[in-house]
From TrEMBL:
Stored SUPFAM superfamilies: Formyltransferase (SSF53328)
Organism: Agrococcus pavilionensis RW1
Record-linked Pfam families: Formyl_trans_N
The name this protein goes by in its record: Phosphoribosylglycinamide formyltransferase
Protein's pathway: Purine metabolism; IMP biosynthesis via de novo pathway; N(2)-formyl-N(1)-(5-phospho-D-ribosyl)glycinamide from N(1)-(5-phospho-D-ribosyl)glycinamide (10-formyl THF route): step 1/1
Gene Ontology molecular function: any one: phosphoribosylglycinamide formyltransferase activity
GO biological process, one term: 'de novo' IMP biosynthetic process
Entries under PANTHER family matching the protein: PHOSPHORIBOSYLGLYCINAMIDE FORMYLTRANSFERASE (PTHR43369:SF2)
Family from the record: Belongs to the GART family.
This protein's GO CC annotations: cytosol
Length: 209
Protein backbone atom coordinates (compact mmCIF):
# COMPACT_ATOMS: atom_id res chain seq x y z
CA UNK A 1 0.00 0.00 0.00
CA UNK A 2 1.51 3.28 -1.12
CA UNK A 3 1.48 6.06 1.48
CA UNK A 4 0.65 9.25 -0.41
CA UNK A 5 0.67 12.94 0.49
CA UNK A 6 -1.43 15.08 -1.86
CA UNK A 7 -0.86 18.81 -2.45
CA UNK A 8 -3.82 20.90 -3.64
CA UNK A 9 -4.72 24.53 -4.36
CA UNK A 10 -8.27 24.46 -5.67
CA UNK A 11 -11.64 22.73 -5.49
CA UNK A 12 -10.09 19.30 -5.02
CA UNK A 13 -12.29 17.45 -7.52
CA UNK A 14 -9.43 15.30 -8.80
CA UNK A 15 -8.25 14.67 -5.24
CA UNK A 16 -11.80 13.65 -4.22
CA UNK A 17 -11.82 11.12 -7.04
CA UNK A 18 -8.46 9.69 -5.95
CA UNK A 19 -9.63 9.49 -2.34
CA UNK A 20 -12.76 7.63 -3.39
CA UNK A 21 -10.73 5.14 -5.42
CA UNK A 22 -8.30 4.64 -2.55
CA UNK A 23 -10.95 4.11 0.11
CA UNK A 24 -12.93 1.73 -2.09
CA UNK A 25 -9.82 -0.37 -2.74
CA UNK A 26 -9.73 0.36 -6.47
CA UNK A 27 -6.24 1.88 -6.11
CA UNK A 28 -3.73 0.49 -3.60
CA UNK A 29 -2.86 3.81 -1.97
CA UNK A 30 -3.52 5.43 1.38
CA UNK A 31 -3.82 9.22 1.44
CA UNK A 32 -2.01 9.99 4.69
CA UNK A 33 -2.08 13.81 4.48
CA UNK A 34 -3.18 16.71 2.30
CA UNK A 35 -1.36 20.02 2.12
CA UNK A 36 -2.09 23.31 0.39
CA UNK A 37 -0.76 26.79 -0.21
CA UNK A 38 -4.13 28.32 0.76
CA UNK A 39 -7.46 27.42 2.30
CA UNK A 40 -9.37 25.68 -0.48
CA UNK A 41 -11.95 23.06 -1.36
CA UNK A 42 -9.37 20.29 -1.44
CA UNK A 43 -8.39 20.95 2.16
CA UNK A 44 -12.04 21.00 3.20
CA UNK A 45 -12.60 17.60 1.56
CA UNK A 46 -9.62 16.17 3.41
CA UNK A 47 -10.75 17.56 6.75
CA UNK A 48 -14.25 16.16 6.24
CA UNK A 49 -12.68 12.78 5.54
CA UNK A 50 -10.59 12.90 8.73
CA UNK A 51 -7.27 13.14 6.89
CA UNK A 52 -4.46 15.19 8.46
CA UNK A 53 -3.99 18.52 6.68
CA UNK A 54 -1.63 21.46 6.63
CA UNK A 55 -1.70 24.87 4.95
CA UNK A 56 1.52 26.72 4.19
CA UNK A 57 0.55 30.07 2.61
CA UNK A 58 2.92 31.23 -0.09
CA UNK A 59 5.34 33.97 0.88
CA UNK A 60 8.57 34.95 -0.86
CA UNK A 61 11.29 33.97 -1.18
CA UNK A 62 10.02 30.90 -3.03
CA UNK A 63 12.99 28.80 -1.91
CA UNK A 64 12.23 29.29 1.79
CA UNK A 65 8.52 28.64 1.28
CA UNK A 66 9.32 25.49 -0.72
CA UNK A 67 11.56 24.27 2.08
CA UNK A 68 8.68 24.70 4.55
CA UNK A 69 6.34 22.74 2.29
CA UNK A 70 8.94 19.99 1.88
CA UNK A 71 9.47 19.74 5.63
CA UNK A 72 5.72 19.47 6.26
CA UNK A 73 5.46 16.70 3.66
CA UNK A 74 8.53 14.83 4.90
CA UNK A 75 7.11 14.72 8.42
CA UNK A 76 4.52 12.20 7.16
CA UNK A 77 7.20 9.96 5.58
CA UNK A 78 5.26 9.30 2.36
CA UNK A 79 6.18 6.85 -0.36
CA UNK A 80 4.87 9.26 -2.97
CA UNK A 81 3.78 12.89 -3.30
CA UNK A 82 1.02 13.80 -5.78
CA UNK A 83 0.36 17.35 -6.95
CA UNK A 84 -3.38 17.53 -7.65
CA UNK A 85 -4.19 21.00 -8.91
CA UNK A 86 -1.32 22.46 -6.88
CA UNK A 87 -0.70 25.80 -8.57
CA UNK A 88 2.66 26.80 -7.11
CA UNK A 89 6.08 25.87 -8.45
CA UNK A 90 8.38 24.29 -5.88
CA UNK A 91 12.05 25.20 -5.91
CA UNK A 92 14.49 22.86 -7.62
CA UNK A 93 15.99 21.96 -4.22
CA UNK A 94 12.58 21.02 -2.80
CA UNK A 95 11.78 18.93 -5.88
CA UNK A 96 15.09 17.09 -5.53
CA UNK A 97 14.10 15.99 -2.01
CA UNK A 98 11.29 13.86 -3.47
CA UNK A 99 12.20 13.21 -7.11
CA UNK A 100 11.34 10.84 -8.73
CA UNK A 101 8.52 10.10 -6.23
CA UNK A 102 6.79 13.41 -7.03
CA UNK A 103 3.97 13.24 -9.58
CA UNK A 104 1.79 15.81 -11.28
CA UNK A 105 -1.19 15.68 -13.62
CA UNK A 106 -1.38 18.24 -16.42
CA UNK A 107 -4.35 19.15 -18.64
CA UNK A 108 -2.52 18.88 -21.98
CA UNK A 109 -0.68 16.34 -24.09
CA UNK A 110 2.83 17.32 -23.05
CA UNK A 111 5.14 18.73 -24.29
CA UNK A 112 2.24 20.66 -25.86
CA UNK A 113 0.84 23.57 -23.81
CA UNK A 114 2.88 23.44 -20.58
CA UNK A 115 2.28 25.87 -17.75
CA UNK A 116 -0.66 27.08 -15.71
CA UNK A 117 -3.02 27.73 -18.64
CA UNK A 118 -2.78 24.54 -20.70
CA UNK A 119 -6.50 24.35 -21.49
CA UNK A 120 -6.82 28.04 -22.35
CA UNK A 121 -3.69 27.87 -24.52
CA UNK A 122 -5.02 24.86 -26.44
CA UNK A 123 -8.26 26.69 -27.23
CA UNK A 124 -6.38 29.82 -28.26
CA UNK A 125 -4.21 27.77 -30.61
CA UNK A 126 -7.28 26.40 -32.36
CA UNK A 127 -6.20 22.76 -32.15
CA UNK A 128 -8.68 19.94 -32.73
CA UNK A 129 -7.34 17.86 -29.86
CA UNK A 130 -5.39 18.33 -26.68
CA UNK A 131 -4.97 15.81 -23.87
CA UNK A 132 -3.94 14.90 -20.35
CA UNK A 133 -0.60 13.75 -18.94
CA UNK A 134 0.87 12.33 -15.76
CA UNK A 135 4.52 13.19 -15.21
CA UNK A 136 7.35 12.99 -12.72
CA UNK A 137 7.99 16.53 -11.52
CA UNK A 138 11.43 17.94 -12.21
CA UNK A 139 12.87 21.44 -11.79
CA UNK A 140 11.32 22.70 -15.03
CA UNK A 141 7.75 23.66 -15.87
CA UNK A 142 5.96 20.46 -16.90
CA UNK A 143 9.18 19.06 -18.39
CA UNK A 144 9.55 15.87 -16.33
CA UNK A 145 9.38 12.28 -17.61
CA UNK A 146 5.94 11.38 -18.96
CA UNK A 147 4.42 8.31 -17.30
CA UNK A 148 1.07 8.28 -19.11
CA UNK A 149 -0.93 10.48 -21.46
CA UNK A 150 -4.04 10.40 -23.60
CA UNK A 151 -5.58 12.59 -26.27
CA UNK A 152 -8.81 14.50 -25.65
CA UNK A 153 -10.76 16.00 -28.59
CA UNK A 154 -11.64 19.68 -28.64
CA UNK A 155 -15.33 19.90 -29.55
CA UNK A 156 -17.10 22.66 -31.42
CA UNK A 157 -18.36 25.23 -28.94
CA UNK A 158 -15.99 24.13 -26.17
CA UNK A 159 -15.20 26.70 -23.52
CA UNK A 160 -12.25 26.52 -21.17
CA UNK A 161 -14.58 25.16 -18.49
CA UNK A 162 -16.25 22.45 -20.60
CA UNK A 163 -12.98 21.26 -22.11
CA UNK A 164 -11.25 21.22 -18.74
CA UNK A 165 -14.02 19.10 -17.22
CA UNK A 166 -13.59 16.45 -19.92
CA UNK A 167 -9.82 16.53 -19.50
CA UNK A 168 -10.20 16.04 -15.74
CA UNK A 169 -12.04 12.76 -16.33
CA UNK A 170 -9.05 11.49 -18.32
CA UNK A 171 -6.53 12.86 -15.80
CA UNK A 172 -8.23 10.88 -13.04
CA UNK A 173 -8.09 7.63 -14.97
CA UNK A 174 -4.48 8.13 -15.97
CA UNK A 175 -3.39 8.95 -12.42
CA UNK A 176 -5.19 5.86 -11.10
CA UNK A 177 -3.48 3.69 -13.73
CA UNK A 178 -0.06 5.14 -12.88
CA UNK A 179 -0.55 4.68 -9.13
CA UNK A 180 -1.69 1.10 -9.69
CA UNK A 181 1.42 0.48 -11.79
CA UNK A 182 3.71 1.91 -9.12
CA UNK A 183 1.96 -0.14 -6.44
CA UNK A 184 2.28 -3.42 -8.36
CA UNK A 185 5.80 -2.73 -9.55
CA UNK A 186 5.07 -2.48 -13.26
CA UNK A 187 6.13 1.19 -13.19
CA UNK A 188 9.56 1.86 -11.69
CA UNK A 189 9.93 5.55 -10.94
CA UNK A 190 13.66 5.20 -10.33
CA UNK A 191 14.17 3.96 -13.89
CA UNK A 192 12.15 6.81 -15.36
CA UNK A 193 13.98 9.37 -13.26
CA UNK A 194 17.40 7.98 -14.18
CA UNK A 195 16.57 7.87 -17.88
CA UNK A 196 15.45 11.49 -17.77
CA UNK A 197 18.51 12.68 -15.87
CA UNK A 198 20.84 10.95 -18.35
CA UNK A 199 19.13 12.83 -21.17
CA UNK A 200 19.77 16.22 -19.60
CA UNK A 201 22.76 18.49 -20.29
CA UNK A 202 25.55 18.41 -17.74
CA UNK A 203 25.02 22.03 -16.72
CA UNK A 204 21.80 23.83 -15.92
CA UNK A 205 21.14 27.42 -16.96
CA UNK A 206 21.98 29.98 -14.33
CA UNK A 207 18.35 30.78 -13.49
CA UNK A 208 17.67 27.11 -12.69
CA UNK A 209 20.60 26.70 -10.30
Amino acid sequence: MLRVVVLVSGSGSNFADLLDRARSGRVAVEVIAVGADRECGGIEIARAAGIPTFVEPFAPPREAWSDRIAERVEAFEPDLVVLSGFMRLLSAEAVSRFEPALLNTHPAFLPEFPGAHGVRDALAAGVTETGASVIIVDSGVDTGPILAQQRVPVLEGDTEATLHERIKLVERELLAEVLAGIADGSIDLADHGLEHRLDQPDTAPEEAK
